[in-house]
Design brief:
Blueprint: H1 2-8, H2 12-42, H3 46-73, H4 79-93, H5 95-110, E1 118-121, E2 124-131, E3 135-141, E4 150-158, H6 161-164, E5 167-169, E6 177-185, H7 191-221, E7 234-240, E8 243-252, H8 257-275
Antiparallel strand pairs: 1-2, 1-5, 2-3, 3-4, 6-8, 7-8
Helix pairs in contact: 2-3, 7-8
Length: about 290
């Protein structure tokens, strides 16, 4: 202790506080490493390991503050006076940091999303893979990639955005979304037959989603004012410039949207090819010539 005091020109009291703080820090860090290793070896589920490591980190941080804080705050006559004088400067200098911590408290307490959920916040959408005290991380979906599939990028979002920007969660409350597939056929096509084909195809390929949504809807209605008259697939009819538009509307799990659309389109192309009197429409230009 004396050599430490002489080397760094510290007072005996400061040197004692520094040594005690260092000892507590090293002891807690060692304990955290041991706990992480035990969890890694004994727990096979990756999600449970992740959540346990997060809980251990929060406990570690809290213990550091509780055990080391009082050591350095001893001797301050009035802690409230000290905090009052420092709060104004801290609030200005650490505005973004404080906002991120407030956002983290909101995420932890209100749970607008959790690790594994697919969310959209502002213009950014993705699957949540990590939540920390200053930011959360997403595996980005969409952007230049169609049908909400992963771009491969990890986006780090400040926690303060949950307090400022609209947040959409694809899973909490109701784990299905409505998806629509527009199918445009020519005016000369047998559109009634085409509609019957699309209704058959949609019921065969996405019926399981509707059945799962019934139970989800019942549970969601207990917490949110969510109500849909019908959850089964439906085909709507309307007229566009180039033909008759038949729109398939159905419920689907967000992560299965592209796969379900592929199944429906492949079945549609096969059935339309067999029908003979149904053709897909596209923008065309027609010229009429009259003999005078």
């Amino acid at each position: 202790m004396q050599s430490l005091t002489e080397a760094f020109h510290l007072s005996p009291e400061t040197a004692e506080k520094l040594a005690l703080s260092t000892g507590i820090f090293l002891l807690l860090t060692l304990g955290r490493l041991i706990v992480n290793q035990i969890m890694k070896k004994r727990i096979a589920d990756a999600k449970i390991v992740y959540r346990s490591r997060r809980a251990a980190l929060y406990t570690y941080t809290l213990l550091l503050i509780v055990l080391i804080g009082p050591i350095w705050l001893q001797g301050i006559a009035s802690l409230t006076t000290f905090l009052g004088l420092a709060s104004a400067g801290i609030a200005i200098a650490l505005h973004d940091t404080i906002a991120n911590i407030a956002g983290w408290v909101f995420i932890v307490s209100r749970k607008p999303f959790k690790v594994g959920d697919r969310i959209q916040i502002g213009d950014t959408a993705g699957d949540v893979i990590d939540i920390r005290i200053f930011q959360f991380s997403l595996v980005e979906i969409g952007n230049w990639v169609d049908a909400d599939q992963s771009t491969g990028r990890i986006v780090h979002v400040p926690n303060s955005k949950v307090l400022r920007d609209p947040l959409a969660n694809y899973h909490i409350g109701f784990e299905y979304i409505w998806h629509e597939i527009p199918v445009l056929v020519t005016f000369e096509s047998n559109w009634r037959k085409a509609k019957e084909i699309l209704e058959t195809i949609s019921h065969e390929n996405v019926k399981q989603f509707s059945e799962g949504a019934q139970e989800q809807m019942r549970r969601a209605a207990e917490k949110y004012f969510i109500f849909y008259g019908a959850l089964t697939p439906i085909v709507y009819t309307t007229v566009k410039d180039s033909g008759v538009l038949l729109t398939i509307r159905y419920l689907v799990n967000p992560r299965e949207r592209r796969g379900s659309e592929q199944k429906i389109w492949e079945a549609t192309l096969e059935m339309f090819a067999k029908a003979g009197d149904i053709e897909l429409a596209y923008p065309t230009t027609r010229f009429f010539q009259t003999n005078k």
